[in-house]
Each structure stands twice: as C-alpha cells, then as structure tokens.
Amino acid sequence: MSACEPSPPPGAARVLVVEDEAGIADLLQEVLRGEGYAVEHAATGADGLARIAAGGLDLVLLDLMLPEVDGLELCRRARAAALDDVYLPIIIVTALASSADRRAGFTAGADDYVAKPFDMEELLARVQVWLRIRAQAKASRETLLCQQGALGEAERRAMAARLEGVTLAAREIADLLTNDIQAPVGVLELLQQEPLPPRLQELVDVAVKSLESAAEHLYQLQRVVRVETKETPLGPSLDLTRSVKPESE
C-alpha cells in the first residue's frame, strides 16, 4: 500500500487479488479499497499460494492464467491443505469462460466464477455475498468454541465435585471402620496374653496381623487428599498410596 492510499478501517475484510495483468490488478485493488476492504496483491500463483498459506485472509480473487503456478493448481492446493480454520471463499476472475473452464474451476474448489470482461458492480456484489458467508461461518465457529469451552469447564467442575465426594466418603468410611475394628483388636490382644493351645495361638496371631494391616489401610483412607486410580483386572481402582497426604506434610 502506498502512502497516498487510504488505510482500511479496523477489522476490515482482507481480500487477496491474485492477478498477473497489472491493469486489472490495479483496478481491482482500487475499487476494493474504495469499498473499505484491506487489499493485497500477488502477481504469480506461487506468491498467491504462499500468501494464502500465511493465513489472515477473508476472500481470494483468483485469475487462472498465472505464471509459476496456474490458478486451478493454486485452488486445488489451497483446498487440499485446508489452510484456514474458517472456510476461505475463492472467486475465479478469468477470461476463460467456457462451460468446461467453469466446471474445471468449480472442481478445483472455487466457490464462484466471474468471466472477463466483468461488470464491477456484479463482482462487488458477489464479493459482499461471500464475505458475509465467511463472517457468518466465523461467528458460528466462535460460538461453538465458546460453548465447547463452557461445556469443558462444567465437566471439570462436575468431576472435581465427584472427586471431592469420593474423598470425603473415603474418610468417613475409614472413621466408621476404624471404630468398628477397635473391639476385635482389643479382644485378640487380650487373647495373645493368655496361655492358649498352639493351634489357637497361631490363629489369633494371624487374625491380629490381618487386623493390623486393615488398620493401616484405614489410616491411609483417613489421609486421602485426592483421588488417584490404578488399573486392575476388574477396571480402575483407588490407588491409596498415591492418593494419601505424605506423612511429612
């Protein structure tokens, strides 16, 4: 853009003109800027493809007979690469106006086809239509992303609430069971102090060790501060070792 050209308004749609004929390229740029668009120009197909790949465009006016990379190939590559998050309209503006040429253009991925010499008012009307379609697509995408973000946040909060519930339940169950096993532990400890037949003494010792192990697990449950899981043959299970608060804390 030269110093004498007006700056486009903030948020103006950005149009790329890919045209190797200087007179037509200048005319299109002048008229489009007069309509308030931000306009860029590429004189070769390779330059046009590189600019499309850089992103930030809202519409492309594309000639077919271009040096280096012709318009059809440019269009095919741009569509194959899907270079934009929102669909980028491409209008072919060319002197190749036969039915076969039009079919080839649409097959390559063009959205509209304008034959040279063209009526400028008609071309501007088509530009407005496709820019409006892109603006609607962008708005829909932004709404969808916002909804997805809100849904993800709601799911995270729900998961946090469920995990907090599991943590509290684990502590409550641990407290209840700890109280329940105190009586049998006390009885077995008294029995260990009495002279018992060897077989019965052996059974009491085994029972005491089992209860001591259970008491340790309950102690871990009382210190659960988060929920960590591990895989088991029956599916995910609570991993007490990783879920409890370290003794040093």
Listing every helix as H and every strand as E from the N terminus to the C terminus, the arrangement reads EHEHEHEHEHHEEH
Largest sheet: 5 strands, parallel
CATH superfamily of the largest domain: Response regulator
Principal-axes shape call: rod-shaped
Number of spatially distinct domains: 2
Number of helices: 7
Terminal residue distance = 64 Å
Compile the SSE list and pairings.
Blueprint: E1 14-18, H1 22-34, E2 38-42, H2 45-54, E3 59-62, H3 71-81, E4 90-94, H4 99-108, E5 112-115, H5 120-192, H6 198-222, E6 229-232, E7 235-238, H7 240-243
Parallel strand pairs: 1-2, 1-3, 3-4, 4-5
Antiparallel strand pairs: 6-7
Helix pairs in contact: 2-3, 5-6
3D structure, described in words:
By secondary structure, the chain is an alpha/beta fold. It folds into two domains: about 15-120, Response regulator (Rossmann fold); about 150-245, no CATH class. The chain has seven helices and seven strands; from the N terminus they run E-H-E-H-E-H-E-H-E-H-H-E-E-H. The strands form two sheets. It has a five-stranded parallel beta sheet with strand order 2-1-3-4-5, with helices on both faces. A two-stranded antiparallel sheet has the order 6-7. Helix 4 (about 100-110) links the parallel strand 4 and strand 5. The longest helix is centred in the middle third of the chain and has 73 residues, at about 120-190. The radius of gyration is 37 Å and the shape is rod-shaped. The two termini are about 65 Å apart.
